[in-house]
Amino acid sequence: MNKTHIPQTDSIETLARFWDEHDLTDFEDELEDVTERVFERSDAATVRIRLQRRELEMVKRLAQARGVGQAALIRSWVLERLRAG
Fold first, then answer.
1. Which of 41, 54, 57, 72 satisfies CB 3.0 to 4.6 Å to 68 for a cystine?
2. CA 78-71-68 angle, 5° bins
3. What angle do the packed helices 53-66 and 70-84 form, to 10 degrees?
């Protein structure tokens, strides 16, 4: 009988499906101690904003021109404004 092994993947879906069907205690010989943090909690929060289509297009164009993502550009604007007080 072939022994099943823990999948070597970063796919959350694949791993979730695997662990839904298997028990951790059956794989103790494959587990290893991890000394470095794998996941870190972040103090960051997400804010959603509504923009008109033309406003979003302007943001996209400006972000592309500066070589950054839209979210990074908007974040820089918010931080700039907060510093200005």
1. 72
2. 105
3. 90
